[in-house]
Amino acid sequence: EGKGKRRNPLHDFKKTGELMLIKVNKTLEVKTKLLNTTEQCAKRCSRNKGLSFTCKAFAYDRVTKRCHWLSFNSLTNGVRKKQDHAFDLYEKKDYVRNCIIGKGANYKGTISVTKSGIQCQAWNSMIPHEH
């Protein structure tokens, strides 16, 4: 079982249809390339292959079949959302989810307080608790 089956790289992404992200902050990076499928875009984003930045999301232009890899996502400062019927936005779940799965090793979200409002302990701190 499982032999010959490949994991779909899109599984690691949250899809929002008909949305594009526009960078207001000029230091944020984008790279584009013609690719036939969203799976190819996702695979390259996940591996950061050929990118000079950590890929946090990509937008796929269904009309031109162009992939736009982004060094940012919808939660990044200096970014605005734009409705665009040609695009689908795919954001890495690790960067946009507000919960920790398992031990939280891949969590890269922005939540830093508990449900009851207590500040979280820094990962590199052994105070007030040991890991």
Automatic annotation (TrEMBL):
It comes from the Eukaryota. Keywords: Disulfide bond, Kringle. It holds the Pfam family Kringle. The keyword Disulfide bond applies. Signal peptide: none annotated. CDD domains: PAN_AP_HGF. This is HGF factor. It comes from Cephalopterus ornatus (Amazonian umbrellabird).
